[in-house]
Design brief:
- By secondary structure, the protein is of the alpha/beta class.
- It is built from ten helices and 15 strands.
Length: 324
């Protein structure tokens, strides 16, 4: 199992400040000890329309030379719209993402069934001028008021089936995340994969999402996913204790922090199934406001550095326990 860095952490969405360039992202990943990177498929990092063939080759060479190859691209797709023009636009975007993934030498494209999106506020709004989910979620809910959940499911299945066919033509594996809406939990994710029925569509089962979705036994949940698992993520915020131990915390909806208690079981489950892919760190939630401003990039740096150290220590600890 390898520890990776997902570029959403440095996209300039959640902290106050600019995004890193892809070259800067690669340098950060190497400095912090990550073994690869996952590039978010939107501006300013990985929107296919912004990356020429020469630029793609340049990024791929830079990542390989730094020892942090590109192991995945992440789509921000939504196949659920009842408006045909919306779905067709998404399929066009998705096909370009598949080509980008192949050009970057990445084996995997992370996908959603549906994704409302994120909006950016201005410097005076109550969210501190950074990313917010609420506007996009209200728009998505309004668009789906006139169609049933079953119809929405069918639209997503049809879109994913077409996307999987295109992925297969380019040697790319799609990894469907257990991410709402539509695929609201592990069972929904697995049902969708079964119904699409393509060897090019597999799973991206993530522990933080599973925890919020009520999964108590991570090992059993991973046993249900089995060999479909080709990608995973972890998140949270991190601090170092006085004795040097790095601790992981989950930020709750009310803004408070709770110690996490599920990563060791999740990693043990991954190792038990001989998972040898990536588990990538993502800082992708509303961040603290200090002195009236959302924290800056230094907050992302601190957490990305400590997250890599934390996950490496968890993997080592679980391996040693298994050998004891």
């Amino acid at each position: 199992m390898k520890v990776g860095l997902y570029s959403i952490t440095y996209l300039g969405v959640w902290y106050r400040g600019e995004a890193l360039t892809l070259e800067q992202l690669i340098d950060r990943a190497r400095e912090f000890g990550y073994e690869g990177i996952e590039i978010d498929g939107k501006r300013p990092h990985g929107n296919p329309i912004d990356l020429s063939p020469a630029r793609r080759a340049e990024i791929r060479r830079k990542a390989a030379a730094a020892g942090v190859p590109i192991y995945a691209v992440a789509a921000n797709n939504d196949f659920s719209s009842p408006i045909p023009e919306h779905r067709e636009s998404q399929l066009a975007y998705f096909r370009e993402l598949i080509r980008l993934t192949a050009d970057l030498g990445a084996p995997t494209l992370r996908v959603f069934a549906a994704w409302p999106g994120v909006t950016l506020g201005d410097a005076t709004d109550r969210k501190g001028g950074v990313g917010r989910y609420d506007i996009a979620r209200r728009a998505w809910a309004a668009l789906h008021q006139e169609i049933s959940p079953e119809e929405t499911w069918d639209l997503c299945r049809t879109g994913l089936a077409e996307a999987a066919h295109s992925a297969g033509e380019h040697g790319v594996t799609l990894a469907l995340q257990n991410h709402p809406p539509v695929t609201d939990n592990r069972d929904d994710m697995l049902r969708m994969i079964r119904e699409v029925g393509s060897s090019s569509l597999k799973a991206c089962f993530d522990a933080p999402l599973a925890h919020r979705q009520g999964v108590a036994d991570m090992r059993q949940a991973l046993g249900d996913v089995g060999s479909l698992q080709v990608l995973s993520h972890f998140g949270g915020e991190y601090d170092r204790d006085a004795d040097g131990t790095v601790r992981s915390y989950v930020r709750e909806p009310d803004g408070s922090l709770s110690p996490e208690k599920f990563y060791a079981d999740f990693v043990a489950g991954l190792l038990a199934m001989q998972y040898d892919g990536f588990i990538g760190y993502e800082l992708c939630h509303a961040l603290p406001i200090v002195a009236g401003q959302t924290v800056g990039i230094e907050f992302a740096d601190k957490n990305a550095r400590l997250a890599a150290e934390y996950m490496r220590s968890i993997i080592k600890e679980v391996q040693q326990t298994a050998l004891a």
